[in-house]
Structure prediction request, 677 residues.
Amino acid sequence: MKKRIIYCISIFLLFTILSINIYLNTKYNISLFQYLSRSNKITNEERNWLEDHGTIIYGTTNNNPPLRYVDKESGVVQGLVIDYITALSIELETEIKLKPLLWNEAVEKLSLGKTDILDMFASPERSKFFLFSDPIYNMRGVIIISNDEKNINSYWDLRNKRVAALKEDYCIEFLKSNVKDIKYLETDDVKDAMLLLKENKVDAVVGDEPVISYYRTALGMKNRFEIIEEPMYEKKVVLAVPKTRKKLLNILNKGIYNLNKRKIMNKIQQKWFGISTPLYKEKVTEKFISIVLIFIAIIFLIAYISYFWNKSLKKEVKKRTEELYISRKDLEITFDGLTNLLIVLNQDCNIINVNKSFCNMVRFNRKEILNNNCKGFPGILCVDCDNCIVKETFKDKRNHQKEINFENKIFEKTTYLLKDTTRDSHRVLVMLKDITKVRVSEQQLLHSNKMVAVGQLAAGVAHEIRNPLGLIRSYCYILKNKKNREDVKIDKALRVIEGSVKKASNTIDNLLNFSRISSNKWEKVNMRDLINSIVKLKNRDMEKRNIEKEIDCEDNLLCYTNTESLKHIIINLLANAIDAIPNRGVVSIKCSIENNKLLIECADNGKGIKKEDIENIFNPFFTTKPRGKGTGMGLYIIYNEVQKLGGEISVDSVLNKGTSFYVTLPLRWEDINEREL
Prediction:
């Protein structure tokens, strides 16, 4: 309880201090801290500084009526600000000398320390060079345009417009920081800028409201030109001093404070305008401020009591809201972070939500996808409306799964019912998982298992066949030794038997060499022998189709490579070439070495490949063959094996003329040399 009382008192004191600060700022344009830390009287030290420094020079502008200008008849500098500077001089009991200059000259001389004070708007850019006093009056920056100009209603509309303004004036700095592409015409005084507007050489003039208003009347522009009602800004004007004269700044602030207490600016305004204008604002009266502060204090106490009783509930609500927000954000991040494609559909099969993976797949952003029907994405989302697993999930409220093909990829499509207890309708989450690599791995594993089985079968068959072949060869030898040398027919028959036995034995050797289980290591291989052994296995297929073979390879071409991968590459290239020739043709295989690279070219004069199919031929399961005639894995296996060996593969094809595949594989000659040594 004590803590609550202390807390309440602390808040009330803080509010009281804040109210006093507002009152001081309203009445004297200073904060409570400035009021307490600053003595209102000039100290002896400050008085000595003024005497040592001598006359204070005010670099006034000479052509900005009614603020400051040189009277043409008397040659005396006059104006509202001049009267204020005079009052400040009297208050400080120090002479302030007026030095009429152009505005840009006044700013430059102040920055060089050749003058002491100048009234201006404070800004970050100007703070690099000057120190700023407490405010002395308020000023509005305005825009004046022709009555015929309908496109300029605020300073935002000044883009790509011609705007005239006083050199080094704050309004230029303000516009440059807020609006781009304005064409500025900077003049030495506001009058020149107004004349440019009058002559239609610019689209608008910007500057201080009193000066613009004065020249609008003085130059007879009141009927044809108007000041935009909405000002660009309304800021407090301060006295700027060089950064090296901080002591002078403290002295000026004391004088400004005392002048504000006596409302000198109000009296000066009444002299020039007859009424109080926006140059000085007394926001509210003291009595009104007091009433408002008391009323606010009472409201604060009532509000605090209400706040105290509801504090626990609000904290809990806030905590739960934040937890829900964090949970929702985490869910969104997880939803978008999943690599699986996720789509949420309502009962009309309209898309409610999707994740980034789906957006990337269909190449649309989320906004373009949402609220569209699933039929807008055929092939991947809408496959078969009659057997739609989304509709089945809505109907039987169970999960369903099927595989679909899209853009040469295989996806596992699974549906999940999302129950919503707050609504009558449910939704379905569709998850599409890319299982292409899984299916490819299964096909490759199946292929490997088949090759193992073929190897085992070949070894068994070779053993069973070689035994009778050995007997035939032995008995043939016996018959040759015991036969009648003059029997020509028997001699010819024995030669035929021996030739057939040798041919069968060579066929078995080729089959064993190709199908034997490899260690998948790099080893030395004779390319001519390897190609011949593979071609012999395909001789029967080529003979059936009347296909001639051409092999261009040196007899002693040795390479150190992965024999197993090379077998896969050549056998699949040869198989594709044979399949491309329906009847009568030529298949050529060229093999050579250039620049430490093995070059293999397999060409045929078959039916060729369509241009639109070439970019897809290396994708898994892509095939142009009739159903049951091909799996679409041959060229994919070639591509993978070439990549595994660090090589490259390319293809040239002309429809109905033929196709050529080019394989380039890097060689490791040092390994051959080491093994030969």
